């Protein structure tokens, strides 16, 4: 069988990163579960800057990996509660969530209680 451009290009270099990404997401999920059990509302996860051997450049691997993680957690509803920050050359993924009532729900429920209290007087 002769080598062609199509045969060399058909294997996606992204496929090489997908299993590593799944392992990272599993680790992040475990951290989220543990934080929730402890009553915390935020995790800080160190993002890797090296990846398994890939045909992508280091920069492209980072871009793919970080955006894939963000997409996964956006699809799970964390949308505006995801940040990536840098400190001392380390990239950190920060995911936060509400625990308890948000301001709108709290105000709505307080209005219900206030209305009942007024009727009782």
Helices, by number, come to 4
Total domain modules: 1
Poorly predicted parts: none
Shape: elongated
- SSE string, helix = H, strand = E? HHEHEEH
Largest sheet: 3 strands, antiparallel
Strand order of the largest sheet: 1-3-2
What would the average pLDDT be, to the nearest integer? 88
The assigned structural class equals alpha+beta
Number of strands: 3
Termini separation (Å)?
90 Å
Q: Over the alpha carbons, how many angstroms does the gyration radius reach?
A: 22 Å
Percentage beta strand: 5-15%
User: What share of the residues lie within helices?
Assistant: 40-55%
Overview of this protein structure:
It is a single chain. The protein has a three-stranded antiparallel β-sheet with strand order 1-3-2. The chain has helices at residues 5-9, 15-37, 58-75, 103-120, and strands at 42-46, 82-87, 90-96. The protein has one domain. The chain is elongated and about 90 Å long. With 121 residues, the chain is α+β, with helices and mostly antiparallel strands.
Task: Write the SSE topology.
Layout: H1 5-9, H2 15-37, E1 42-46, H3 58-75, E2 82-87, E3 90-96, H4 103-120
Antiparallel strand pairs: 1-3, 2-3
Helix pairs in contact: 2-3
Question: Summarize this, please?
Answer:
The protein is α+β, with helices and mostly antiparallel strands. 53% of the residues lie in helices and 15% in strands.
């Amino acid at each position: 069988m002769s080598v062609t451009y199509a045969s060399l290009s058909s294997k996606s270099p992204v496929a090489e990163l997908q299993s590593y990404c799944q392992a990272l997401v599993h680790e992040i999920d475990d951290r989220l579960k543990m934080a929730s059990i402890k009553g915390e509302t935020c995790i800080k996860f160190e993002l890797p800057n090296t990846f398994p051997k890939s045909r992508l450049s280091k920069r492209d691997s980072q871009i793919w990996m970080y955006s894939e993680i963000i997409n996964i957690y956006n699809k799970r509803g964390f949308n505006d509660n995801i940040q990536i920050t840098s400190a001392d050359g380390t990239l950190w993924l920060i995911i936060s969530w509400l625990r308890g009532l948000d301001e709108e729900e709290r105000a709505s429920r307080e209005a219900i209680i206030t209305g009942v209290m007024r009727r009782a007087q």
